[in-house]
Amino acid sequence: MAQISLTFPDGNAREYAAGVTPAEVAESISNSLKKKAISAKVNGEHWDMQWPINADASIAIHTMKDDEQALELIRHDAAHIMARAVQALWPDVKVTIGPVIKHGWYYDFDRTEPFTPEDLETIEAKMKEIINLRDPVRTEIWDRARAVAFYEANDEPYKVELIAGIPGDEPLRMYWHGDWQDLCRGPHLQHTGQVPADGFKLMNVAGAYWRGDSDRAMLQRIYGVGFRNRQELKKHLTMLEEAALRDHRKLGREMDLYHMQEEAPGQVFWHPNGWLIYTQLQDYMRRMQTRGGYVEVNTPQVVDRKLWEASGHWEKYQDHMFIVEVDEEHAREKSVNALKPMNCPCHVQIYNQGLKSYRDLPLRMAEFGSCNRYEPSGALHGIMRVRGFVQDDAHIFCTEAQIEAETKLFIEFLSEIYTDLGFENFKVMFSDRPETRAGSDEVWDKSETALMNATKAAGLEFELNPGEGAFYGPKLEFVLTDAIGRDWQCGTLQADFVLPERLDANYVGEDGAKHRPVMLHRATLGSFERFIGILIESHAGKLPFWLAPRQVVVASIVSDGDDFVHEVVEILRAAGVRAEADIRNEKINYKVREHSLGKVPVILAIGQREVEQRNVTLRRLGQKQTQVVALDDVVNALTLEALAPDIKRAKDAS
Fold first, then answer.
1. What number of other Cβ atoms are within 10 A of residue 138's Cβ?
2. Residue 353 catalytic?
């Protein structure tokens, strides 16, 4: 029998018979490893313990200590176990697909009766029974005719349709979990008992059209979450509870920030409180950009398709664009335009006005650009996912030699802003060429190398994110972590050698010849709408004092204090603090509760004693204790607190 060589992570190699499985390899090392093993990595690919290895390869055996692989397999097997439980309880239910998603899985079922919350409890109990059986998981490869005949005999029409959509040369792998079977690529665990019985929970049921087609059957999608143990599950459920309390849609109503309505799907109606946050954040960004050497521009909302064709967006991005057709006077054909989905081609138009020299570079051009992109209605989510938004967008036109320095400057710029806004930690993803892209492989090689070298020179550690670059160039994605540990991708830096070529951007070099500039696409916050949603959720509505739309409420305890309430409000407003009076004939505890729900950071209560002594009783949001403070001291302290971080730094430095 032919022999193959398997190399282990420590560099040692062993000889095995061709066709050896990872399970057999694990057993050859120790029985303990065989029992603990869940999967393997063979030549970098995730490998089932039952799959044969037929050629020399590198191999690593995974156990539950390997986070990524363990969670993927737990969730994948749990999806199958859930489907098995459903069909054990209701044999007439038809199964479709059940993929792994972030934190868990879902499975779509065709069932006449809707699943109830009580049904989910019943399914969970059945799943635990199946897990405790420790049924072996086995796999075989079948030909198409056999697989189709099997599913037709078992009245599973969705599986038959799935097989029809699989490319003809792709093998069909069948998996059994005990006596229950599913069509699946794998890999899977060795037996059902490897799924932690106390590490999963079924969350909810939602409707889902078969294959996302509204003309097809409406299925029932059951979502579950899965982890390695009860502690990890509990931590996740606690985070979900906290996230629900922080939901920007809930807090947006309580703080009276904005609303949305069906007449303008995916568009935001900003109320005074919300717009104040928006403008404060925009003013801060404008000052930071000015300090960073950016010039601000503004470009049209509606642009002729000719520019989008020249830039490549018409071909690559048209499905996300809002098209505007106009009957031009005396024209034979309609004029076809599009609402701009991004600002980059328009910025090149400004760059191209007038001859540019190498001495003009780098040119940092910024715009608070109002953009519109079509998002399916099912993808819209409060102000986090909208169709109309404003980006803190900028494009840096530079030479190749300047990429490294500009990348380093931007990372420092972004880091300072994130810190100012309460986000101390962020990670960096490096996204390289996607399948659908513009430009030659040679150009992509050059742009990826340039951005990679610049990132390393800036001292940044990063993770590779294969195939997720923009269609015109690779990008860095800056992912910040909020107060409850969730990740949000916000900032980007993209190196683009393609668009300057397509739109004929030039500069005159030191040699007197024309050269193409490199275009660095740069955003720090991303869209203002989404970033404000992130801010609201991370701070649980308790925004930093300088950003809070309602900073101070001065509330009367007795009507004799009304005049002093108005005086304090005027003094605070004159000092630059947003203050308002509450002299309603209500008890002070009622007023405190109401303004605390509205996330007002500071409440100043005024009664007869405060009037006589020209003091105020100060209560901060989230604190039960109060303190009596002299009016002048309160005004001085709140005036300083109301300064944006950049203004405060400048004041401290002067």
1. 15
2. no
